[in-house]
Fold this protein.
Amino acid sequence: MRVSALWGLLSAAALTAAHLPARNYTTHDYYAIHLASSTSPTHMATLLGLTYEGPMGALEDHHVFKAPKHDNDIVDDAVQELKRRRRKRNADPSPHPLDSIHFTQKQKIKPRHVKRNLIPERDVARASPPLDAAVMAQQAIARELHIKDPIFGEQWHIFNTKTPGNDINVTGVWMQGITGKNVTACIVDDGLDMDSEDLKDNFFAEGSYDFNDHVDLPKPMLSDDRHGTRCAGEVAAGRNNACGVGIAYDSKISGVRILSGEITDMDEALAINYELQKNDIYSCSWGPPDDGKTMQAPGLLIEKGMVTAVQEGRGGKGSIYVFAAGNGAMNEDNCNFDGYTNSIYSITVGAIDKNNLHPYYSEACSAQLVVTYSSGSGDSIHTTDVGANKCTKDHGGTSAAGPIGVGTYALVLQARPEVTWRDVQWLTVMTAVPFDQPSDWTKTTIGRMFSHQFGYGKLDAWAIVEAAKTWKLVKPQAWFYSPWMHVKKAIPQGKQGLASIFDVTQEMLKNANLERVEHITLTMNIEHQRRGDLSVELISPDGMKSHLSTTRKDDDFPEGYKDWTFMSVAHWGEKGIGKWTVIVKDTVENDKTGNFTDWKLRLWGESIDPAKAKPRPLPTANDDADHDVIDDHPAHTTSIDVPSAGPTPTSVPTDLPDRPVNAKPSVAAPAPVSSSTTAAFETPISATPTPSTTAAPENFLPSPFPTFGVSKRTQIWIYGSIILILAFCASLAVYLYLARRKRLRSSRDDYEFEVLDDMEDDEGGARTGMLNGAAAGKKGRRAKRGGELYDAFAGESDEDLLSESEDENGPYRDREEQEYDEKAAMAGGSDGGSSGSSSNERRP
Ligand SMILES: *[C@@H]1O[C@H](CO)[C@@H](O)[C@H](O)[C@H]1NC(C)=O
Ligand SMILES: *[C@@H]1O[C@H](CO)[C@@H](O)[C@H](O)[C@H]1NC(C)=O
Ligand SMILES: *[C@@H]1O[C@H](CO)[C@@H](O)[C@H](O)[C@H]1NC(C)=O
Ligand SMILES: *[C@@H]1O[C@H](CO)[C@@H](O)[C@H](O)[C@H]1NC(C)=O
């Protein structure tokens, strides 16, 4: 018994180095739990009857636990039970070991992401002949760079011989020896054929992993696992005798496989910053369905994974995320309904075709930064395919545009390794090339042209690399959060709109240490009976208009927006001071109506004083929990009806809101919640180790349990000590338990709690599966409780229990069981409110 416990601990310690053990979602449930750093995960596992699997990659103090498959959520049930007991007691909450759980999420298999490729129509008739002079120039370049790749001549996105200039303009960069050396791009996709002759020399196994089959190498296995390999070819196909070349043909390429099987938020979060010190750029040509009716954001764990990567990846300069904009334009889809493409941490890349035309599929949105070449007008991207020496002429969709961006950024990182993730976005804004296509091009405050369809224009590898060489690095990020603007008014239908204004003062931005704006995000709530009828515009103090949301003919969702966050890059470089006006329209006159509830503006940008800047706390489930906070400061918002013709609310009289809605200058300070208070419940969490019990003498584990945040080697030693301590505690507990059993009898027997001696209990097999040895006691009396609470409350004092059972409403246990049963019945597949999983309608 003790020996096996020892083995378990030792193997857990050894596993912290390598990967987590392979998941098996058929046989087990997995929990991702954020613990106070002072809490030992093995201690928590014992307390909850879980098996500790290991730390959760780069996410600090996040851990993975498993239990045999079962219906309920062991951890959330225990947390809720603690809350309930505290409410019941009405006394000041005494510390409990469960207080160290900041966040818990039982993992669910999530809907598959969609690859953003398309089967392009090839149309030879529309192909124009190559120009002789251009072909000669191309051949001269190939000779000079010793490029002998057989399809190099077809790779029009690299050097266009038919419509010169319609390419990424990279050959001049290569001539300077900038070819992606010492840079690694990671293709997060359906695999990567590392045995392909075109990829094998650049393949980087250390940065690769297969999160579908839980093996080290992301080898394509399914018949349609071609997408990742094609994307990899665009970035890093070698200069050799196979197919063509990648934009960064001397860069390293790794693959993380997530699109070919079951995946959970936890695995996606691990995948999206996998080996974040070795992989520099993550290429993501996938996302939620582009069907014109989905609205889906990454779950909280994934969002935390991305924030961690931009703060810690690349030695603190920040991992670069590139996302394909989406292929749903023909469905009136918009990349602002996709929480990956509208993240401030991702560079959203849309597509143009070889004639610089907008291809029918490429989505527009205010979060789109740039476009580059892909399929359309009868041709597509020619690159590497799965197989020893296999090529494709048919890589298309925004899937094929994203990796051209990735290759270009690899060149930027070679030319200027010290650029941060925000410098890369700045460089894109400053060097993208607007082109002569009708669109809503608008000149921004800093003199750049922006279009929702094409972002800041098309990428130009030469221009961005040249600019990177001498770019003055931006100061660290700062941000300003407005309070919630409570509008709570009906939205007029038709051409009318409902406007709400927030006035940002110089003082607010000074206090927020914010010098100039880069991204803006706007989180909002609208109740509406048909979501697709809505549109939302944001007009900045400088008069720049972002179309945050656009109408969607197929989106019948009957509940509007719930804490949905829109993003815009159209205000890049603005000061941000003055009136920000949001205008909501219900464009269709029908019986589907709605109300604009509230909104909150966040300005993200460059700090004034770098010394005062600090990293953004990791997002928590409670970040938008301050919805209804109202204070006595003067109103800064007003709601007015505006005619659709223009942003200026002139023709309609101003209509004051029902009650003053208040700005809260005090909120002007960054991030209301610090990362260390990611509470799954409201109780303040102590930063010091929590004693495992209050007054009870039969405390079975020592309170200052060893911390986990030490090096691997030290951990082995610590675990050695843990084992000794546990062995001692177990013996002590046996003693105390027997002693206590004598004391507690009859009526209060039902409130018995387990201690470590239960390892000796051989009735464990009859209990529900989630009980481990340490918790498997008291079977006869407790079985009806479903095993969900067992020893999480092992430390309850006798006094507490006594007062509970003396409660006038009768025996505590009966009520508790009843409540539990009701709760279990109601809970069903619920993930417990604190989960922040990637629900379709919520962006945490
Ligand atoms: C999970 O376990 C089941 C039962 O042992 C087994 O049949 C299945 O192949 C396993 N799946 C994986 C992915 O290992
Ligand atoms: C492309 O790169 C060259 C340098 O090789 C540069 O002179 C030129 O301006 C760039 N742009 C276009 C459209 O050719
Ligand atoms: C490659 O990158 C590493 C890490 O950024 C750096 O230490 C090293 O000097 C680079 N090597 C070259 C040849 O640029
Ligand atoms: C809008 O608010 C009104 C008044 O509070 C309410 O009766 C109506 O049901 C709300 N509409 C929606 C779609 O929630």
